[in-house]
Amino acid sequence: MNKKKVVIYGAGFSGLCLAHFLLKRGVPVEVREKSGVCGGLLGSHLTEWGHTESAANGLLASDDLSELCEDIGVKFLKPLAANKKRYIFRGRLMSFPVKLMEWPRLILFALRYFLKSSGIRAREFETLQEWAERNFSKSFAHDVILTGFQGIYGANTGQLSATLLLRSFFGKKKDRQTDLKGTLSFKGGMGELIQELVHSIESRGGIIHLNTVNTTQDTDDVSVIATGLPAAKKLFETFDAPVAHEMKDLKCAGILSVTCFFKPTGLEPRGFGCLLPTEYKFNSLGVLFNTDIFSHRSDYRSETYIMPESYIDRPKEDVIENILADRSRLAPEAPLVGSKFYGWHEALPVYDKDLEVFLRKDLLNHKSPYVVGNYLGEIGLSKILSQAKKLAEKIGENEF
Ligand SMILES: Cc1cc2nc3c(=O)[nH]c(=O)nc-3n(C[C@H](O)[C@H](O)[C@H](O)COP(=O)(O)OP(=O)(O)OC[C@H]3O[C@@H](n4cnc5c(N)ncnc54)[C@H](O)[C@@H]3O)c2cc1C
Q1: What is the pTM of this model?
Q2: Is residue 242 domain-shared with residue 321, that is, in the same domain?
Q3: Shortest CA distance to 197 belongs to which of 391, 27, 21?
């Protein structure tokens, strides 16, 4: 019989990070990936106009990230100074988004936060919109709070669960050892991180099979589902039908990311990007100013527009027309030289009441198949990374 191992389904960021931390503990690993490439949503591509990212353009600094990068020998790319400025459109571009009449409730909230008042916490099954309207003026709740989360979750923020989204805001803050702050990337983008992770996994004896959906394995083997939510629901039908039944109402939202390259005019707003509240009837949800965030991206002015799911199947010229209409309200006109589209149906889990109900049942990660991924409480890569590290410790202790 073969030596007992962990079989990980999915070679996206979740699966690769888990494989790394298991191998570091000496646990044998086999990764099975459905597609022909590793990285899942993440990927960097060089176009004739410059660098593009298929999903995340960076990840938040953390101790776990410093450890991972040191382990695999990859160097961070720190953000440019210009990235510190962030904008929100409230009739005009504002880098400080508070209007005069919004101050009193904002100050009251800050006071209650520092006094640790339980009244400001999210209530069970409260939506983000209800929580925001309860704690802030309506205009601030909609234009700033809901729009801010729209930039991360890309979904109809009104229906999202306040408990799930605000967990880390109200949770215990971890002591950090790293001095690094903010969003980090790599010279070759997120693709470089994936490439180095794969290289390190293989050099430590981990096996990665591409183009496979095979779920047969030795009875001793431990399974981990490290796919996105839609595939996890299907895999649970094979591994644990009662859990699959509990997951049936969980939803995903699609997103379209379009990176546009413009001839620079020198008159563009400089910063990380701009959030676009629905109130102001933009077509896009937000825009990132890539060339102000990291160096080595493009000689042109590179901007990524995040569009709602409904744009994924529309003709490209039509999408570009909508983007240019949005841009005309943010920056002086400039010639568009090229663009790159990444459309993701079912890209991100919807953090709504159904997911809150499911996660409260605490059905996952007590036994094989274990799970790691962006539908377990946090969507961002730095949180997935710490989830993968903790899971590797748990599997190492429970199973080996
Ligand atoms: C446009 C966009 C921008 C984003 N920006 C940021 C950002 O700036 N910062 C940030 O922190 N996060 C960001 N995110 C979120 C982050 O990118 C994702 O949460 C993360 O990449 C998810 O990784 P994953 O490995 O869990 O899932 P995935 O990337 O979906 O990988 C899952 C893998 O499983 C494989 N698979 C599917 N079915 C099977 C099967 N049956 N057997 C085997 N393999 C299977 C898939 O092919 C895929 O390779 C963004 C997301 C999007 C869409």
Answers
A1: 0.95
A2: no
A3: 21
Residues near 219 by beta carbon (within 8 Å), at least 6 away in sequence: none
The domain in which residue 134 lies consists of 104-170
Q: What's the N-to-C CA distance of the chain in angstroms? A: 16
pLDDT digits (tens, 9 = 90+) for 118-177: 899 999 999 999 999 999 999 999 999 999 888 788 767 778 999 999 987 877 666 666
229 ligand 1 Cβ < 6 A? no
Nearest CA to 128 among 103, 104, 160, 100? 160
Contact 86, 182 (CB under 8 A): no
Atom 23, ligand 1: residue with shortest CA distance: 13
Q: What is the CATH number of the domain that holds 330?
A: 3.90.660.20
Q: Which pair of tokens denotes residue 81?
A: 């100074």
At 91 the three-state DSSP class reads coil
Question: Is 12 near ligand 1, meaning CB less than 6 Å away?
Answer: yes
Q: How far apart are CA 134 and CA 131, in angstroms?
A: 5
Count up the domains in the chain and report the number.
3
Distance 280 CA to ligand 1 centre (A): 30
